[in-house]
Amino acid sequence: MAFDKELQRETAKIGMTATLGVTVATSLFMKNKAAKRAHIVAGVAFCGFTLWHTMLYDKSKKRVEEVEAKKD
């Protein structure tokens, strides 16, 4: 079952929001060993969601828009 790009983008955004929230919340308890591990895992997951979200956009489409904007 293939998911369309819009659903994947929304999923990536939700993942970024959730992991950023966990990262911020656990930053207040860095002396706690479990919170420190959760902070690191959430930070790595946030980077992964961000990379995935970035890769979901078509780069060639953006370049075409930039070229058309320069013509005007």
Helix and strand layout, with pairings?
Layout (H helix, E strand, L loop, with lengths): L4 H22 L6 H23 L3 H13 L1
Helix pairs in contact: 1-2
Description:
There is one protein chain. This protein has 72 residues and is mainly α. It has helices spanning 5-26, 33-55, 59-71.
How can the largest sheet be summarized?
none
Proportion of helical residues = over 70%
* Shape verdict: elongated
Strand content: under 5%
Order of helices and strands: HHH
The gyration radius over C-alpha positions equals 17 Å
Nutshell version of this structure?
By secondary structure, this protein is mainly α. It has 3 helices and no strands.
Describe this protein with a few key phrases.
single chain, 72 residues, mainly alpha
